[in-house]
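Q: Two folds, back to back.
A: First:
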Amino acid sequence: MMKKLKNIIGFFLITVLAFTSCQEDDLSFGELVAPSNIEISVTYIDDNAESPAPGLGSGEIKVSAKADNATAYQFVIQGQTKLQKSGSASHTFTTLGTNTYAVTVVAFGTGGMSSSKTIEVEVLALYEPPADLLTMLTSNSSRTWKIASTVNKHFGLGSIGGPEFEYYGAAPGDKANSGMYDDRYTFNVDGTFTHNVGPDGFVFGRENLINELGGSGGTANGADIENYTFSTYSAQWTLTAPNEVETLSLTGIGFIGYYVGGNHSYKIVSRSADEMIISTTDGNGQFDWWFRLIPE
């Protein structure tokens, strides 16, 4: 009888401790609070200066948001989703003329709680890509590009705004084991883009930033992640010329060569009928990344 009583008491103590532990775990999450009072402001940008609405024709805007109890913000513009802790994001519209667009801001609070607000913005876009640029990119129908892996300085990096391949330029075949060389980038004249990751199903990118893709695996090699498992996908492409610099932009997670996050826009630094050199700034704001592309 005494042994049975001890077992009952022991079970009771374990149950109380477990219940107390669960309560402590629950309390550790803190109060769940959804953001409130979302405020959204829009700034029109032309030649790096503010313009009155609807802008002077660049099509570029900066959207800023603030809200009570918000820890991060997500901006949804033309199907693109941009997650920013800073509360601001930039976007360039390319449809010619003055057009009205919906901009949605999702504010995130503690415990994943969120609130959203949608506004409409009127934007003027006047840039029309030159015919020879469209012909080069799409062959007026569809054209597939690849990294010029057999050429010196086909991939590299440098300081932001610095010269081409300033810090590093890959030698021929230097990244043969990265998962980059069999990727193909197809630009269709209707504005669609396909990134075929090749038969190996791998892509190449920067540590931490590459996790934005939602793929898996990969092998760390310094700050590079090689052979990261990912699938072929499609997106949209647009051409703009902020400050008279021809720029190729991809929607969503669209990227070329090496994933670095950022704004997914590539300056066309130089181009000919069968080659283009492009650069983009990474999402950490550390480097400009350079790519030399040739047609398939």
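A: Second:
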Amino acid sequence: MSPNPASAPRLSTQTLSQAKPGVVLPKYDRSKVTVGIVHFGPGAFHRGHQACYYDSLLPKDPRWGVCGAELMPNGLMENAAVQDNLYMVAELDAQIRYRVVGSHIEYLKAHGQADKIFARLNDPRVKLVTSTVTEKGYYLDGKGELDLDNPAIKADLEHPTTPGTLIGWITEGLARRKAAGMVPFVPVSCDNMVMNGHKLHGAVLKFAAARGDKDLLAWITDKVTFPSTMVDSITPAATPELVERIERETGLRCEAPVQREAFLQWVVEDALGEGAPDLASVGVQLTKDVAAYEFAKLRLLNGAHSTLAYAGLMRGRDSVGEAMADAKLSHAVELMMREDIVPTLHKTPGLNFNAYISDLLDRFRNPALTHKLIQIASDGSQKLPYRILGSLQDALKGGRPIRRFTISLGAWMRFIERQAKAGIALQDPLNDKLSAIGRECTGDAAADLPKFLAVREVFPADLVENPTFKAAMLAAYANFEAQLD
């Protein structure tokens, strides 16, 4: 029988000994761990990914505890405090494993605890400042550059010592390190953007220039490195059912759990500098060619995910597993990966694209993990330029077919129309603009499509003017399902 939901003890330092056999517990004295990393955006992905690597590192080097900095309050801090900042990661795969992660030492809120976050950023023991704030959290424009006209960025420029954005926090944190005569920390983006380190670097430089501080700009240019990274592990949102399952199977109740597949990969540009944590010793791949891994993951995994999400939702599917069981859809996605995306990628030693695709397809079919398509469908205006349009534009330049790339784009537009006419807000920073377009749609491709293609945050002008692209999009908008054949 399942225990009463209130019968199992809450996860904490004091209750760890009550975990059932088989639960993986921290193998180090947490009282000796110090903070060496500040992480902005400590959501599920970070806690199931980078924090697990740090957790594996702490038994041999206790200097790399994490301070989680919440830019947007989400209740995590409150749940974490009750659990002594411990939480459970459920690895749901052919073999089920439960792991208690203890690498988070504290959580701080940007709104209300700014002084404490700045104290951490100014602590010489802090070497890395990492981030998972999603693509939209960098406030980039259609060219991948910082949008100085965005209200959040403008607010940080007007009040640089009370920032609200990641870019504002990093720039002001670096300014304070410079003023104190300290070596800079290393900002490390862990978000799904091509050359994320390069984009973060450019955004911080542009923000520093807009502050009018030439000395700071020169110091960042000369002294600060921004390594690029690639992160990979399918991490669906936690559910109440997960909480109950963890309690039933581990004997402890965790109100801030993470679920993910067993697969875990982190590729980091070998530019972390002196004094950085020995991430390679716990399985992180350090390389000079992150781009090859980034493009492969963003275009193959994430591109396939977005296609499965929008086309799957419009075909009545609910999860990645259900979309993969849709033979017509999954076959089209596999062909897109093998025939259309691979030619846009560049080779690097150790990266076998065909084997990688086969592994991805197996991961998508993982019956132990339910990944909701609606979760993947969020923030489409921010994701599609990286996941689909980059591959499509490269295919156009190479004179190769683009038909299958338009499946996700046509389905995305139809998804917007459906949600808008049902009165359901999109989980997207362009909700107002996109929903307005969706409400005006008539179903006539010639009338509707130009409205979507005029959204410059998604579709660059030179692409929209390409006759091959326009013709393919007219067909996809009229009937995206026909492109599955």
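Q: And?
A: Confidence is low (pLDDT under 50) at residues 1-5.
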